[in-house]
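pasting Large ribosomal subunit protein bL32 for the record, 57 residues
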Amino acid sequence: MAVPKRRKSRARTRHRRAQWKAQAPQLVRIVVDGEVHQVPPYLVPAVRRGLVQVSRR
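structre below
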């Protein structure tokens, strides 16, 4: 297992961690049964086939 030879400062560690940001999911608009839904691109085929239920808002 890799072990650092020197101690890393708090500022350096926090600066590195600050780059990890959550991103909002990219959504695609599709029409199913006359209703417009927004779903992630990887779920579009499943929603069109009726395998995944989309909640109404």
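The chain has a mean pLDDT of 88.
Strands lie at 28-32, 35-39.
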